[in-house]
């Protein structure tokens, strides 16, 4: 571009741009605008650029050649001597004189104030340096109006770019880069060792279910509301940022109020955050629905040694601990958490390998039809035969499988394997063609490929679709997630049975069930357990409702004859539970179906024993 090669007489800049710098080939300051001169008590001329500013975008240290080769790109210079002051502007190369010109305007981060920077309002009024400068450049060759327009456009873009680079578009909050930058600057401040910083890392609980159920635009609405509530709860000097997804962070600086935090300050902010989120969020697209929220919060404090990355990692580990401890709470970082996280990472890696190493197993828990007390089939339940830790049950690794996305691969394996086993049962025994298998699905499996995976598994084994029941939990249908809705419909068209599992344990209402075409309702074992205390209301209501919607009822976790007796009388169609049989290895089930086998040693429950012994 012609204007960058044209010699730029320094005096012109002097008056036009209070925030300009002229740099020589060693990146030393030859000349500086009046406002920059004031940034350092001794003035800045003669200093190395790197002693005064850190170039923050997109990398930290540059050579003269690198800066010169990127004319018109937006650069940010973070002041090393005035925390909070960032200059945003452009580097222009004056090839004729071997000089670099930086012309910028101040851009103040959230925590800096005019007075703390020693700047006056006047500085800001005349600080539109990019506009002034470009205007002067252009006016030598173009019409003034044209130059003005160009200058305005350029300035808008610069502003936009700066904002976009450091803010989250959805909530308008600072993003991770800005928070990191702020944290680094705070921790680098000379008095930091005596001034404490606290980082609160926050992750919404169950946000995925909101997204799955109500669609992404409602998810966005929820995130915006959360952002607003966090900002309202935080003290004005705290930095609130969104890290992407459903993760937010809050940085508190004790330097604003003293030097270290007392026991209550940070905890009370965490408690207020938890409280404010409990207030249900109403969704503009679903006026009848208010989504209750909760979050898990991890807190980490600086002790004068941690880097910004250390602090964020510690807060993240503490947040993870809050999740594992039951969610909707906060935890403070302890060094033991680091060790735990290493073993988690290890576990994730091992799970990845487990799929290929063939360490996954399926157990089958028999399901009994109450009309005639016959086998209806079984529910496939996943286990991990870990090489050193033994047989792991789903709650020890399923979250990890969902978090890492491995559940998609694992789920496909479960479907294949369960169908293969069902084929064996049906083949081995005449009259067993109506036997079925039930497979649990996780919400994360609800993608475009699920229907194909199911269809392929059935087709490969030549099974009737009606033999396969797919169990989904109510989180998936808590709202009106279109993706889940469409997938469920496609599965239904395929002819498989759809069951709603663990009904009544989450948020969904009875009303919601009507919008979906489920074939079966599984009564959670919690409600079956209530029968022992004489509390039959929930079970009888669920049965009546399911029958009203033309659904079959399967009761889970049946452990006593009394429970079975009640369920039978109440018209429940099928039962499953330790009274009938625990989850069994496939070989044992095959033996049972043959009416023989060493199954008593495996202690299936007394009822199944009776059924099998009677040869029914
Ligand atoms: P679920 O689908 O509700 O499965 C029933 C759980 O209750 C099983 O636990 C089963 O072992 C247990 N159970 C059965 N009868 C009784 C009883 O009489 N008393 C008691 N106390 N418990 C009984 P499990 O195998 O640990 O599975 C836990 C959950 O993990 C399952 O709950 C299901 O949601 C999930 N899961 C299991 N396999 C898979 C899978 O392949 N994919 C997915 N996505 N989830 C799975
Ligand atoms: Mg289930
Ligand atoms: Mg269940």
How does this model look, in words?
With 616 residues, this protein is α/β, with parallel strands linked by helices. The protein has three domains: 19-166, Beta-Lactamase; 176-333, Alpha-Beta Plaits (2-Layer Sandwich); 365-379 and 406-612, Alpha-Beta Barrel (TIM Barrel), CATH 3.20.20. It is 43% helix and 21% strand. It has 25 helices and 22 strands. The strands form four sheets. Strands 14-15-17-18-19-20-21-22 form an eight-stranded mixed beta barrel, surrounded by four helices. A six-stranded antiparallel sheet has the order 2-1-6-5-4-3. The relative contact order is 0.06. Residues 1-16, 108-144, 596-604 and 609-616 have low confidence and may be disordered. One magnesium ion (MG) is lined by residues 379, 440, 471, 501.
Mean pLDDT score: 79
Major sheet details: 8 strands, mixed, barrel
The SS-based structural class is alpha/beta
Bound molecules: ligand C2E, magnesium ion
Q: How many DSSP E strands?
A: 22
In the CATH hierarchy, what is the superfamily of the largest domain? EAL domain
Major β-sheet strand ordering: 14-15-17-18-19-20-21-22
CATH architecture of the largest domain: Alpha-Beta Barrel
CATH topology of the largest domain: TIM Barrel
| The level-1 CATH class of the largest domain | Alpha Beta
State the shape. elongated
Please give the count of helices: 25
How many domains? The number is: 3
Distance between the termini: 90 Å
The helix fraction, in percent, is: 40-55%
Low-confidence stretches: 1-16, 108-144, 596-604, 609-616
> In percent, how much strand structure appears in the residues?
15-25%
């Amino acid at each position: 571009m012609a204007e960058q090669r044209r010699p730029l007489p320094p005096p012109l800049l002097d008056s036009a741009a209070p925030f300009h710098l002229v740099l020589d080939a060693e990146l030393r300051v030859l000349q500086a605008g009046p406002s920059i001169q004031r940034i350092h008590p001794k003035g800045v001329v003669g200093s190395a650029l790197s002693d005064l500013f850190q170039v923050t975008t997109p990398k930290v240290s540059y050579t003269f050649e690198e800066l010169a080769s990127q004319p018109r790109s937006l650069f940010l210079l973070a002041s090393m001597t005035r925390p909070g002051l960032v200059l945003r502007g452009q580097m222009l190369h004056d090839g004729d004189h071997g000089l670099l010109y930086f012309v910028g305007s101040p851009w103040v981060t959230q925590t800096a104030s005019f007075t703390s920077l020693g700047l006056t309002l006047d500085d800001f009024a005349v600080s539109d340096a990019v506009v002034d400068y470009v205007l002067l450049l252009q006016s030598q060759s173009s019409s003034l109006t044209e130059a003005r327009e160009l200058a305005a456009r350029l300035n808008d873009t610069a502003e936009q770019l700066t904002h976009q680079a450091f803010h989250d578009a959805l909530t308008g909050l600072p993003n991770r880069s800005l928070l990191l930058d702020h944290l680094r600057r705070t921790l680098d401040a000379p008095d930091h060792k005596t001034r404490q910083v606290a980082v609160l890392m926050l992750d919404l609980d169950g946000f995925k279910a909101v997204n799955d159920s109500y669609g992404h635009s409602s998810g966005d609405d929820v995130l915006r509301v959360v952002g607003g509530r966090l900002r309202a709860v935080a003290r004005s000097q705290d930095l609130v940022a969104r890290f992407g997804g459903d993760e937010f962070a809050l940085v508190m600086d004790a330097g604003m109020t003293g030097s270290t935090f007392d026991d209550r300050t940070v905890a009370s902010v965490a408690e207020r955050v938890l409280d404010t989120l409990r207030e249900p969020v109403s969704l503009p697209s679903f006026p009848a629905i208010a989504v209750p929220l909760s979050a898990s919060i991890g807190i980490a404090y600086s002790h004068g040694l941690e880097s910004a990355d250390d602090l964020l990692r510690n807060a993240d580990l503490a947040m993870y601990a809050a999740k594992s401890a039951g969610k909707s709470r906060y935890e403070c970082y302890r060094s033991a958490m680091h060790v735990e996280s290493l073993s988690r990472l290890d576990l994730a890696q091992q799970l990845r390998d487990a799929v290929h190493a063939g360490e996954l197993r399926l157990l089958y828990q028999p399901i009994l039809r109450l009309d005639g007390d016959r086998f209806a089939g079984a529910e496939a339940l996943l286990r991990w035969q870990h090489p050193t830790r033994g047989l792991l049950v789903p709650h020890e690794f399923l979250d990890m499988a969902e978090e890492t996305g491995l559940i998609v691969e694992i789920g496909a394996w479960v479907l294949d394997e369960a169908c293969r086993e069902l084929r064996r049962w049906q083949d081995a025994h005449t009259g067993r063609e109506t036997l079925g298998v039930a497979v649990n699905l996780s919400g994360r499996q609800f993608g475009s490929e699920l229907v194909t995976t199911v269809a392929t598994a059935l087709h490969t084994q030549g099974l009737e679709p009606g033999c396969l029941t797919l169990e989904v939990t109510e989180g998936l249908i808590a709202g009106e997630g279109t993706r889940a809705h469409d997938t469920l419909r496609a599965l239904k068209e395929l002819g498989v049975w759809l069951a709603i599992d663990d009904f009544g344990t989450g948020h969904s209402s009875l009303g919601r069930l009507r919008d979906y075409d489920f074939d079966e309702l599984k009564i959670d074992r919690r409600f079956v357990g209530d029968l022992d205390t004489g509390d039959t209301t929930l079970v009888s209501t669920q049965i009546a409702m399911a029958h009203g919607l033309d659904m079959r009822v399967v009761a889970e976790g049946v452990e006593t004859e009394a429970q079975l007796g009640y369920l039978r009388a109440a018209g429940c169609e099928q039962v499953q539970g330790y009274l009938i049989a625990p989850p069994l290895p496939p070989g044992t089930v095959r033996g049972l179906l043959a009416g023989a086998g060493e199954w008593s040693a495996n202690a299936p429950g007394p009822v199944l024993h009776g059924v099998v012994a009677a040869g029914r």
